[in-house]
Every structure is written in structure tokens, then in C-alpha cells.
Amino acid sequence: MRTSIATVCISGTLEEKMHACAEAGFDGIEIFEQDLLVSPMSPEEVRALAARLGLSIDLFQPFRDFDGVTVELFAENLRRAEAKFQLMNRLGVDMILVCSNVATATIDDDDVLAAQLRQLGDLAARYGVKVAYEALAWGKFVNTYRHAQRIVDLANHPNIGTCLDSFHILSRGDDPSGIEDIAAEKIFFVQLADAPVLSMDILSWSRHYRVFPGQGGFDIAAFLVHLTRAGYTGPISLEIFNDVFRQSNVRRTAVDAMRSLQWLENRASHRIEKSLEAPDAEPLPEPHLELEQLPIVEPPHGIDFVEIKTEDSEAISELLSQLGFVFQGQHRRKSVQLWTQSEARVVINGQRARGTAPNISALAFRVDNPDMGYSRALELHAAAVPRHHTPDEAELRAVRAPDGTEVFFAHSDSAQSDDNEGASVPAWTQEFGTASGASSYSTALIAGVDHVNLAQPWQAFDEAVLFYESVLRLDTVPGTEVPSPAGLIRSQVVRTHDGAVRLALNLVPHGLDAEEADLDGTPRNYPEHVAFSTANIIEVARRATAAGMDFLKVPENYYEDLAARFRLTSEELAELKDLNLLYDEDADGAFVHFYTETIGKVFFEVVERRGKYDGYGAPNAPVRLAAQFERSRFRGQR
Ligand SMILES: O=C(O)c1ccc(O)c(O)c1
Ligand SMILES: [Mg+2]
Questions:
Q1: What is the dihedral of CA 376, 377, 383, 385, to 10 degrees?
Q2: pLDDT of 56 above 60
Q3: Delimiting residues of CATH 3.20.20.150 domain(s) in the chain
Q4: Which residue among 35, 206, 208, 209 is best mutated to probe the pocket of ligand 1, counting the most ligand atoms within 8 A of its Cβ?
Q5: Is the CB of residue 372 less than 8 Å from the CB of residue 411?
Q6: pTM over 0.80, yes/no
Q7: Residue 493 in 3-state DSSP?
Q8: CA-to-CA dists, residue 485 to 388, 583, 625, 626, angstroms
Q9: Binding of a divalent metal cation: at which residues (predicted)?
Q10: DSSP letter at 633?
Q11: Which ligand 1 atom minimizes the distance to the CA of 191?
Q12: What's the CA-to-centroid distance between 241 and ligand 2, angstroms?
């Protein structure tokens, strides 16, 4: 599949955009006229730069308000078009996008529109230019792809074809399957855009909220399947108008864009493969889009370890020990500690940690084939994390997620070895010596990691969700919004189907990034956490209380509300209150949990899921955030 991207998607000058698109691996670009008009480069220089970068210029756009106009206006429009055709010859681009008239059209007559397009086709042919006619969803008379196609068919000119844009079709709730009925040679160009499901006027939605495929609510993979079945073989181009992307780092956004296309291509290809297995399946036309697949990997089976980076391990290790973790040992070569309890493993990394607030720096995922997972991640343009290891150490490979978290690929089973009690543990744990510590408690009550909550910089939220989905094959579930004293916090869970891996990605309100300072100059940090699972939250909380652990204090008002919402006995309520436990209940079961105080940017949670409860105690999240805000204003200072 040939990939292309409109220059309007990303920030920077035309030159910067072209470099970023080429580096991210795009085959071509659509040049937005505005980008050219303001560029110091001449059309010839742009053409030469594209050639040097190996980029084709696939489309010049847009030409507006051409069709359905009076005779006088039409003559004007033709003159304007001829000037653009001349410019396109200098640029070396042979396709122009003409969007359906949104402003100056006065004639609602398909025959007139077709005749005008036919004349435009004659003029275009003289310059070797082809015209792709696109129905904008808010076009005055032409606003559906079927209508645009009818006019293109009526025009019946070799230089006049259609441009299909997924946004204009799907935003109106139109059925895209009719694409398969369009003659392949009449589909001149294809633009893809996704968008979150919003209820607003289509123009504003289109101009500000489009996102890359896979980041919104449209089924863009199905759209690509229809195009493949139609026999379209031209470029697949991204045209995303998004306020955030246009002010974000250009290289990062270009990579995000490319990853979204690769992920889309992979998903569409698998769908087609599956559909072709049906006994009465229609074969694909020849030729058709060649859709590439990524190496097939299974979603992870669990979290192997969580790494916390801190210069001063004491405060974190004290909390862990109060929660029943055992100090497993010090790494034999590095300033790194391992703390474990059953399947929960926390690595405290003191390397290169000077001056950084304690934070969640890495997550390791247990996968079937770490080498494959890693190379597939690189194929999806994830950045490799350079790591040094000695020949006798396990080779763990990692890539960097958009939020900076290092994502490790660990063996799910093969490289396990037995500890001295006969339990199976990952081979890398041997580098820490064996069970040199002892738990202060007789039995391990924490079983493993239930979920990890990671703060996402606001500009990289959509990118992060797509990263975890495509690189780790996690599924998204409907997102939520949690009110906090620092702002509304968008939360998106990505998880495996079986719940063995659950990440909650939280969009950090503007101004709470580590780098940003409060008005009084104090840096404010939004905390992240690791939630451990237990089957006996009461006992974990009792032990931790006895050990003097700092719990996050829950306000009295909360417990009064609990009593009103749920049928809890007064003994149950008293116990919850006594131990600073929070409670939630739904049709599937109940959820009881508590939080520790925050150290730097990290705190811990312990959760007990009762019955088939599958959520995260969302109604309690505002209580937690407010309590943390009261205590530290997210500064993490105790
Ligand atoms: O919003 C617009 O004007 C506009 C212009 C060109 C396009 O291809 C498009 O989809 C929208
Ligand atoms: Mg478009």
C-alpha cells in the first residue's frame, strides 16, 4: 500500500514537514496550498526537495467553490484553475483536489455541475492534470460521496474522478459499502481520517477534531476493506485537521501518523483474509491494494515487573515492606533492588536517578516471544531503549512509549527458573541473588499486579493509546472522565481480554506536567500508581496499619455517601472507615481498595475484586484525587 499524508496534519514549515514525513517512512505527500503559499521555497525547489527525500507529491489541494456557479463566476473559476494547473506543472504534481462548493453555488442541477466539471477536465487535460472531486459533508448541494460520484459519472471525462474521504462519509453516518460499486479507475484519490464520536456541527468537528485512524470512533479498517474490494490501487493518504497535532512536535506526529496507517493496514488485511475463508466469499478484484501484515504476536500474559526510578530507595522500600514485599536482593552489578511478593515484582532503580522524583520508569510485559515483540515494535517505529548487559545477564529489550515509560518484552515462561522454595521465577531475578530478605509477615497476601496507572502528557494522549494498542496488542474500552480539583482528567483503560494486563492511561491536566511550575513557582507532579491484587484486602490493610504505613486518608463524607448508596452493615462500614478502604459495587460484584500516600510521583494501591467485578472503582477516583490534592497539591512532597 502506498502511504501519503497531507501537510496540513502536522506542524512546522513545509520543509520541516517534508523531512518529517520522509523520515517517518511515507511514500508521498499532499501539499496543502497554504503551506506552499507561505513557503520561501519556489515550486521548483519543493519539487527538487521531494525528489531528494524520495517523496512523491500525490495531490495539490484544495481548490474550493468551483462548481454550481453562474456563467460569469464559472469563467473566473476556470481562469483561477488554469493558474493552479500551471503551478502544479512546476511542482510536478498531476492531481488536484476540488471540493464540492460550500459557498458560492447557486445552481442545484447535476447536469450543469457535470458540464462544468467536464470543461474543467478539458482544461486540466491540456496540463496533464487529473481532477479529484470530493463531496464535503457540508457542501451546499453536493455533500455525499454517491452524489459526487453521480456527477463524475455524468461528466464522463477521463480527467475527472472522485476523491473519497472517510470523514465526510462516516461523519454523516453514511454507509461506505457503496464504494465497492464505483469503477476503480474513477476513484482518483483516497483520504482517511478518524474522529472521536462527538455531537456537534460537522464543519467544526472536521476542522478541529479529526484524529489518525484507530484513535477515534469510526471503523476505518472496514473503509479500507471496501476500497480494496473496489479495486482501488492508488495512495492511501491521511488528512487530519487537529488542533493538537498542528502544535505538536512534527517528527513525533509524523511517526504517530505512520504507526496508525501500519496498524490500520494490518487490521484491514486480517479482516480480508478472514472474509476470504467463508465458503461463498467473493474473490478480490485484480489488481487490488496490497495490504501488509505485521508479525503476528499474542497479547501479553501479564506484567513481569514494574520499575520505579528513585535516587533514594528508602521511602519506596518501606512502603513495599509494609505491604508485605520481600527484599529479594541487590543487583550484582548495578544500583538496582528487587522486591517481590508472589507474582508482583518491583524493581527500584537508583541508576541515573539524581534529581528525579520517584516515578514509574518501566513496565515489563510477559510475552510468548520477546524478540518478535521487540522487532515488531521497532517496525511500528517505536524508539529502542539502548541497554547494556553483560554476557551472563538476561537480555531484556525495551522500547520507549510516548509517555517516556520503558516497555520491556520479557519471556512469559520459557526462561523461568526455580527459586529455592521451588516456585517458578523469571531467570533475570537470579541476577539479584536469592531471597536474602524475609517478609515481616508469615504469608504473602498480595498475588500480583492488578493494574498500572500512567500519567500521559496531554499532547501525547491519543498517540499513547494507539501505541499501547498497536505495539502491545491491548484493547481499548470506553474511556471515562474523572473530576479532580486540578481539572477534568480523561482516563482510558487499555487491557488484555482476560484482564491479565490492565493499564489506565490518564491525561494529565495542563500545567501538571513535571516540567511545568505552579504560579508560585512550585513544580506540580501528577502522581502515577501501581495497583496490587489481593484476595484479602482487610488483612493487607490491617497488617499495613499495624506496621505504621501511611494510608491516603479518605474523608468522612465519603463513608456517609457509601452508607446511602449501598446496603452495607454498620460493622462493614466501620471497618472500611477504620482502614481507609474504598468500596464500589456493580451488577458483577464488588471492589474494595486502598491507596498509600504518594512519594514523589508514585503511590500504590491494593485492590480486592469480589465476584466478577471488572472495573477500577471509577466512582472513587475523584475522592482519591481530591484527597491527594488536599495533601500535596500533587507536588508529591510529604
Ligand atoms: O475543511 C475543508 O475545507 C476541507 C478541505 C479539503 C478536504 O479534503 C477536506 O476534507 C476538507
Ligand atoms: Mg478531504
A1: -90
A2: yes
A3: 3-277
A4: 206
A5: no
A6: yes
A7: strand
A8: 42, 21, 7, 6
A9: 134, 165, 191, 239
A10: T
A11: 8
A12: 10
DSSP assignment of 371-435, as one string?
A: HHHHHHHHHTTPEE------TTS---EEEE-TTS-EEEEEESSTTEEE-TTS-EEEGGGGGG-S-
pLDDT in tens, 89-147: 999 999 999 999 999 999 999 999 999 999 999 999 999 999 999 999 999 999 999 99
Q: What is the largest CA-CA distance in the chain?
A: 91
Angle at which helix 43-53 crosses helix 14-23, to 10 degrees, equals 20
Question: 45-49: which pairs have CB atoms within 8 A and are 24 or more residues apart?
Answer: 46/14, 46/18, 46/91, 47/90, 47/91, 47/92, 49/15, 49/18
Give the residue, by CA position, lying nearest to ligand 1 atom 11: 136
191 is in an annotated binding site: yes
Which ligand is closest to the CA of 8, given by its number?
1
Helices (H), 127-249: 145-155, 166-170, 202-208, 220-230
Asked if residues 95 and 189 have their Cβ atoms less than 8 Å apart, the reply is: yes
The three grid cell numbers given for residue 488, joined into one nine-digit string:
477534568
The ligand 1 site (C-beta within 6 Å) comprises 61-62, 97, 99, 134, 136, 165, 191, 206-207, 239
pLDDT value of position 262 = 98
List of residues 6+ apart from 368 with CB closer than 8 A: 297, 298, 301, 412
Residue 515 annotated as lining a ligand binding site: no
| Cell numbers at 126, concatenated | 491540456
pLDDT tens, position by position, 558-573: 999 999 999 999 999 9
DSSP 78-127: HHHHHHHHHHHHHHT--EEEEEPPSSS-----HHHHHHHHHHHHHHHHHT
CATH second-level architecture of 302-632?
Answer: Roll (3.10)
- The C-alpha atoms of residue 536 and residue 401 are separated, in whole angstroms, by 34
Give me the helices (H) in 132-249, please: 145-155, 166-170, 202-208, 220-230
Top mutation candidate among 136, 165, 209, 210 for ligand 1, by most atoms within 8 Å of CB = 136
